[in-house]
């Protein structure tokens, strides 16, 4: 006997939350939601998310003057004077005269702090000259590399209470770097950090008489060449043994909020920071992305954690990441309030932790916490309050929610029978269709852009255009995909109702089916977040708390206002308050962060192609499109479920298409340029002298390449100078390969001499039980070079300073990537240039007759006449780009073949 449902017309109109109209004298149930209400919801969500982002990441404290803060406070006005002095030096990389001036300036500022300190505070200043060293990091950006350094100088400042000698045995390290890359003056990276440290040191020098721990400020050099400054301090300076916690200050952009993007492994530091910081800022999602390798970068914090075994915090400015390591990292773009934000947070944190008696337990605590995995999960709410809880508590919460979710879903399916099971399957289908359509629409745009635009990444200078180019088609695709699933689901439910509710008219049955389908679409959004929670919990992903929030709160709102366990319930329209109640907190804690991360992805497109021309032009845009689609499908799934029974579908679709067309038109027409003078394309100009043996005489040419996706046709036309572009002009720069390059040999014989060409000379080759080859490396005029060693042929090696016999790299502990181990060497002006390399061959050699055994590139920061002329003609929307693996403006290539 079938179950039949009987309702009155009053129930169907009033209690069910649907409208009623007269049709031939009969009451007809109509499932329809106000289009204005739906549009109002969309406006509210969009404006709300943007308001959250603005308040969380754009609202900065007012800069304070020295008079306002007095002796003990933090003044951005005072700190900015340091930034101005350091940026006035221009680029100051390792080995440059400008860096020597920068060191002298910081040293003088430190000495002034010593003079003006509180009479009960001991301030020690050390100009530390590090001896040669080698840094082999296990993972991250420098895996498979040995970072060798020499002739580095740092300024070290220690502040401690004069009459508490035990404080000298326990210290907090605050660290940043003075040096910059050769391509920028480094206002953000990291003159801003150095300035904050100097102002912090000045303030703390008037507080430290009450401390139980000392504070060490390390102003290091060599960070940009491979974290060498941090490594030399940790391994060589006598004060390093007293450090119990490390704080690193960095910049991945220029200004804005300085947020924590790495913390731990001990939770102690982040927990205490959350207690006292005035404007707490930090997201464990950034830490998850950084440690996963998605963000290709490294900071000194890796050395402090991996080499020294320390816990602590890693801060970074991340506004306008597109200017990173380019000429646009300049003073005028440093946003007011940025230094005040970091300075006040750090001052409160240092005053709190330096006075703590628990810090001396830091190393042991870090080791114990790391071993049992009870790390911290953290995130800030609107940059005003920080939530921190332990992984152990997270495990309990996640396990509880996962089990309860499974019980609720299982119970509802058992009570609903086969109809509920099939409806669940079809709602899952709607989710899949939503993802497929959304990804298809947005990635199609990414594939098309290189064909119709002057740049495959036309959104870098104007990130807001991402909304029109990718978010609009992604949202339209999500709406269409879910609507297709809705129609399929509604059709099935209508058939099921027709069998169970024969006493109702087909019109009523159809309208009830619409309402029931809407509910299943809402619940399907819960299901995708449930899957993410399970996966994140299994892999111990810190940012799994996001899945928890987006699952529990919408589910709670639904259960409170909508749900019933009765299998014979009457469908009702979802209440608007259900959506508002369920999504308010999730959007509050993550809406601004999702926008911020999109901006970071946009900025990283400038340096996306680590091997220029090695990736398809569309790849960077595809990654951004996938990210935008994923955020829309995950966060707007509940909101989209409200659209299908409203009259707003057509308007929303037309509005999405209109925004997309207008954005695309602006890009194609050039109304919105991909790059500007302040947000540049990364382009490198290198005078290459190739003495690798491919030619009888050294070949000299100028190479022009870019880490920003896209060909250089427009730039070459602007420059002239006889450049020819193509993949046939690939250049192996040892640390990377410029697969697409523009070359010219015109006027390339000036500005260098044969005496500058490095030499790889085989001194001996003994073939006993273990084949040993002794090679001399003479880098000539260069104190910055990269050497690749073929690990298919060479099992191990040793490197010595030929001038004094000092062993720089010992036997053992080597690893390779793609068959090569790379040595990156950098040093000051007095660094050695001649080295002895001992190569121990593998027993099972490949016996390659035409392969290379060694590849050498030496760099010189010198402008030859041709390069100078090219740089003068370089378009204003272009900038040189520097990093540890980049060649400088003059490079020499040499190699040694296997069959030497």
From TrEMBL:
Highest taxon, organism lineage: Eukaryota
Cited PANTHER family: METALLOPEPTIDASE M28 FAMILY MEMBER, VACUOLAR MEMBRANE PROTEASE
Cofactor names: Zn(2+)
GO molecular function: metal ion binding; metalloexopeptidase activity
UniProt subcellular location: Endoplasmic reticulum membrane; Vacuole membrane
Segments forming a coiled coil: none
Keywords: Endoplasmic reticulum, Glycoprotein, Hydrolase, Membrane, Metal-binding, Metalloprotease, Protease, Transmembrane, Transmembrane helix, Vacuole, Zinc
Protein name: Vacuolar membrane protease
Annotated transmembrane regions: 34-53, 406-426, 433-452, 464-489, 520-539, 545-565, 577-598, 618-639, 651-672
CDD domains named in the record: M28_Fxna_like (cd03875)
Any Pfam family hit: Peptidase_M28
Region described as Disordered: spans on this chain: 1-23
Gene Ontology biological process terms from the UniProt entry: proteolysis
InterPro entries referenced in this protein's UniProt entry, alphabetically: Fxna-like_M28_dom (IPR048024), M28_fam (IPR045175), Peptidase_M28 (IPR007484)
């Amino acid at each position: 006997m079938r179950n039949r449902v009987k309702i009155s017309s009053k129930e169907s109109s009033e209690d069910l939350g649907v409208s009623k109209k007269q049709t031939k004298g009969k009451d007809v149930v109509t499932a329809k939601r106000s289009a204005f209400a739906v549009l109002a919801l969309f406006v509210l969500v969009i404006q709300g998310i943007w308001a959250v982002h603005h308040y969380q990441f754009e609202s900065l404290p007012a800069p304070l003057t020295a008079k306002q803060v007095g002796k003990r406070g933090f003044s951005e006005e005072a700190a900015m004077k340091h930034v101005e002095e350091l940026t006035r030096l221009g680029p100051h990389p390792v080995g440059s005269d400008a860096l020597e001036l920068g060191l002298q300036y910081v040293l003088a500022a430190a000495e002034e702090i010593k003079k003006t300190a509180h009479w009960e505070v001991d301030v020690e200043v050390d100009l530390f000259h590090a001896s040669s060293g080698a840094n082999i990091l296990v993972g991250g950006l420098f895996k498979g590399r040995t970072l060798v350094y020499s002739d580095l100088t740092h300024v070290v400042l220690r502040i401690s209470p004069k009459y508490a000698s035990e404080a000298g045995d326990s210290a907090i390290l605050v660290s940043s770097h003075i040096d910059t890359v050769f391509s920028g003056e480094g206002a953000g990276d990291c003159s801003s950090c150095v300035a904050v440290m100097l102002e912090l040191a000045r303030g703390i020098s008037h507080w430290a008489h009450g401390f139980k721990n000392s504070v060490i400020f390390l102003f290091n050099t060599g960070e940009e060449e491979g974290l060498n400054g941090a490594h030399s301090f940790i391994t060589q300076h006598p004060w390093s043994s007293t450090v119990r916690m490390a704080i690193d200050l960095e910049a991945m952009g220029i200004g804005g909020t300085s947020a924590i993007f790495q913390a731990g492994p001990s939770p102690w530091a982040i927990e205490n920071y959350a207690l006292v910081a005035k404007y707490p800022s930090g997201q464990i999602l950034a830490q998850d992305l950084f440690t996963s390798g998605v963000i290709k970068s490294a900071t000194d914090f890796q050395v402090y954690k991996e080499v020294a075994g320390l816990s602590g915090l890693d801060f970074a400015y991340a506004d306008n990441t597109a200017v990173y390591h380019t000429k646009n990292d300049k003073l005028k773009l440093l946003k007011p309030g940025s230094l005040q934000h970091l300075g006040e947070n750090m001052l409160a944190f240092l005053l709190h932790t330096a006075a703590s008696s628990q810090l001396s337990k830091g190393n042991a605590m870090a080791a114990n916490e790391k071993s049992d995995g009870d790390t911290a999960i953290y995130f800030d709410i609107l940059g005003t309050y920080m939530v921190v809880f332990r992984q152990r508590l997270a495990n309990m919460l996640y396990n509880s929610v996962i089990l309860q979710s499974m019980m609720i879903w299982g119970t509802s399916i058992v009570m609903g029978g086969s109809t509920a099971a099939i409806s669940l399957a079809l709602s899952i289908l709607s989710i899949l269709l939503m993802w497929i359509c959304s990804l298809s629409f947005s990635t199609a745009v990414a594939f098309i852009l290189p064909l119709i635009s002057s740049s495959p990444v036309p959104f870098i200078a104007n990130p807001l255009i991402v909304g029109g180019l990718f978010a609009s088609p992604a949202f339209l695709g999500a709406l269409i995909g879910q609507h297709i699933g809705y129609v399929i689901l509604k059709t099935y439910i209508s058939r099921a109702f027709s069998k169970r509710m024969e006493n109702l008219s087909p019109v009523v049955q159809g309208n009830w089916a619409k309402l029931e389908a809407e509910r299943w679409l809402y619940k399907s959004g819960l299901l995708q977040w449930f899957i993410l929670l399970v996966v994140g919990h299994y892999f111990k992903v810190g940012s799994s708390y996001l899945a928890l929030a987006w699952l529990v709160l919408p589910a709670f709102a639904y259960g409170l206002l909508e749900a019933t366990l009765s299998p014979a319930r009457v469908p009702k329209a979802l209440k608007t308050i259900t959506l508002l109640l369920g999504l308010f907190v999730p959007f509050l804690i993550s809406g601004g962060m999702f926008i911020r991360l999109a901006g970071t992805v946009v900025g990283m497109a400038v340096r996306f192609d680590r091997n220029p021309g090695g990736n398809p032009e569309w790849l960077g845009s595809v990654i951004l499109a996938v990210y935008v689609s994923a955020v829309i499908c995950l966060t707007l799934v509940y909101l989209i479920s409200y659209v299908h029974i409203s009259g707003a579908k057509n308007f929303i679709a037309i509005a999405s298409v209109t925004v997309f067309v207008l954005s695309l038109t602006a890009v194609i027409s050039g109304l919105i340029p991909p790059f500007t003078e302040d947000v540049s394309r990364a382009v490198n100009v290198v005078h290459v002298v190739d003495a690798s043996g491919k030619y009888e005489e050294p070949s000299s040419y100028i190479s022009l390449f870019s880490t920003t996706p896209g060909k250089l046709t427009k730039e070459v036309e602007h420059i002239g100078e006889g450049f020819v572009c193509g993949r046939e002009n690939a250049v192996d720069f040892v640390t990377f390969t410029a697969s697409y390059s523009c070359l010219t040999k015109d006027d390339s014989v000036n500005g260098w001499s044969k005496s500058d060409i490095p030499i790889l000379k085989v001194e001996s080759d003994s073939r006993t039980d273990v084949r040993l080859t002794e090679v001399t490396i003479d880098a000539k005029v260069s104190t910055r070079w990269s050497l690749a060693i073929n690990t298919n042929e060479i099992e191990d090696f040793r490197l010595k300073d030929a001038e004094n016999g000092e062993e720089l790299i010992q036997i053992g502990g080597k690893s390779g990537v793609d068959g090569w181990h790379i040595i990156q060497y950098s040093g000051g002006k007095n660094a050695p240039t001649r080295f002895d390399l001992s190569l121990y061959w593998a027993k099972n050699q490949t016996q390659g007759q035409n392969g290379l055994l060694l590849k050498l590139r030496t760099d010189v920061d010198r402008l030859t006449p041709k390069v100078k002329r090219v740089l003068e003609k370089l378009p204003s929307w272009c900038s040189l780009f520097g990093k540890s693996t980049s060649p400088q403006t003059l490079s020499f290539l040499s190699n040694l073949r296997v069959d030497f």
